[in-house]
Amino acid sequence: MNPTNKQQLFIITGASCIGKSTLCEQLFLKEKEYIVMESDLLWNEIYNTPNDNYCEYRRLWMRVCSNISQIGKPVVLYGCAVPEQFENQPERKLFQDIHYLAIVSDQKTIENRMLRGRKIDDLDWIKSSINFNNWLKQNANNTSPCITLLDNTELNPKQAAEIAHKWIMNKLI
Questions:
Q1: Segment 94-118, tens digit of pLDDT
Q2: Looking at CB atoms within 10 Å, which of 2, 3, 122, 156 has the fewest?
């Protein structure tokens, strides 16, 4: 199928345990103008290819999002990602624009969510999440396109979701 209705694609990214899923659960309640999808939904070990930036996995999601958006609504896809994983794919042409919003917080908040909230004791995983969070904060303005940051350190999920919803709606105008 050759999609004829090009929509915008919204990527909500961030480190593990940063609050992406919780935020997007709140967006589900508002989704009249867009469709919210969780990228882990299609995860399979065959896509575990960090050497090529998970290329086939991103390409699959871009085709899925493009097909879904044929109903005339853009997709909001959430999961850990960076622009180069989408912008360099042939499927990029299936969308008008791709917008990136990264959920970030301070280090103490991530550690608390991982250790106390999720009971994660894998120190490498915690370190990796903190490193990705820091990378996003340091490089958001250097990616192409730039990543918008939403710091949820002092926000509850509803507040963060309201900011994300307004960000999406402003891009749809």
A1: 999 999 999 999 999 999 988 887 8
A2: 2
